[in-house]
Amino acid sequence: MHKKGKTVSFADPPVITGHAGVAGKKEGEGPLSEDFDAVFADTTMGQQSFELAESAMLRDAILRALSAAGKSPSDVDFILSGDLLDQCMGSAFAIKDLDIPAIGLYGACSTMALSLGVGAMLIDAGAKCCVAGTSSHFCSSERQFRFPLEYGGQRPPSAQWTVTGAGSAVLESKGEGVRIRAVHIGTITDYGITDAGNMGAAMAPAAARTIHDLLEDSATTPADYDQIVTGDLGAVGTKLLYQLMERDWGIQLAGHHKDCGMMIYDLKSQDVNAGGSGCGCGGSVLCSHILKKMEQGALRKVLFVATGALMSPTSTKQGNSIPGVAHGVVLEV
Fold first, then answer.
1. Domains within the chain, CATH numbers bracketed
2. Cβ count near 27 (within 10 Å)
3. How large is the C-alpha radius of gyration of the chain?
4. Is the pLDDT assigned to residue 276 strictly greater than 90?
5. Mean per-residue pLDDT of the chain
6. Label partner for 35 (CA 20 to 30 A): which of 225, 291, 296, 298?
7. Cα dihedral angle (28, 31, 35, 40), rounded to 10 degrees?
8. pTM of the prediction?
9. Number of other residues whose CB lies within 10 A of the CB of residue 332
10. DSSP of 217-253, one letter per residue?
11. CA proximity to 165, closest of 195, 190, 140, 146
């Protein structure tokens, strides 16, 4: 492992040997429907609560990823997972019966990149097999962070739709698959945004900082990547990201960048305002659509930057700002 600036690169890159992205009914009606490994028409998953439904969806993604890698839970050294719910209970209930040493991570919507990054460093340190995963559910997140579902309040144009979905990836030291060439652990960035209905504005500064710092550390430009993919900035956050990159560093991302929050839904027909959000947004899109495109040879080198808004119901009620963080993972075939 070699560290330059805030970016860690690997001489022997860890390999993603199995992966799975699953989604709910609304996501299955969007442009990426054919790429998901499973689409659940019943987003209660037969459970007693939406929180348990999210856990069931994450567990399904984890088991599918393990199956794709030809592994069983007993083969795994560590599982790294997190979500948006209090104390990461979505992940805890998803993995509690798998009998795998568990590392809970909270990066908000950046958790897919965070879990991949920490998992890759564990592999580099000697672990043989790690599992990374994350999830979100529209209903569980909405009633925790915004309003009761029955309230039916009007959503501003800047608001995003929390994705019901989950993603999981199996990392190994050897094998065939997409490799993690480098990892960038992001720095918390706070521009003083307080509007919980504008997550894109809260996260865009962190995304800009991470992309710039990783490009500088690795002596690369946007043109060196087939795609730079952010997790869930949505339409508002994407526009702000482009403005910040050009204003502060003279870097133009347009034409090199895509956002999972704008890929997972049809913004014109699905009534999701500024696009998708949530841990499951970047998680499900990366672990289905993007990794499949890389395995098919359509993409060779991708910089995946998942973004997170580090807020809680308590901090919002107290009028605090919403800091952002973004973690980056360089993927290659």
1. 11-172 (3.40.47.40), 178-332 (3.40.47.40)
2. 29
3. 18
4. yes
5. 95
6. 225
7. 0
8. 0.96
9. 16
10. HHT--GGGSSEEEESS-HHHHHHHHHHHHHHHH----
11. 140
Tokens of 311: 């807020």
Residues 161, 277: Cα–Cα separation, whole Å: 6
- The 8-class DSSP code of residue 286 comes to I
- 3-state helix/strand/coil string of 97-162: CCCCCEEECCCHHHHHHHHHHHHHHHHHHCCCEEEEEEEECHHHHHHHHCCCCCCCCCCCCCCCEE
Per-residue model confidence as pLDDT tens digits over 238-258: 999 999 999 999 999 999 999
As a dihedral over the C-alpha atoms of residue 75, residue 100, residue 113, residue 181, rounded to 10 degrees, the angle is -30
Residue 172, classed as helix, strand or coil, is strand
Q: What is the pLDDT of residue 151?
A: 67
pLDDT digits (tens, 9 = 90+) for 36-61: 999 999 999 999 999 999 999 999 99
The tokens describing 243, both together, are 């403005």
State the residue for tokens 């990836």: 169
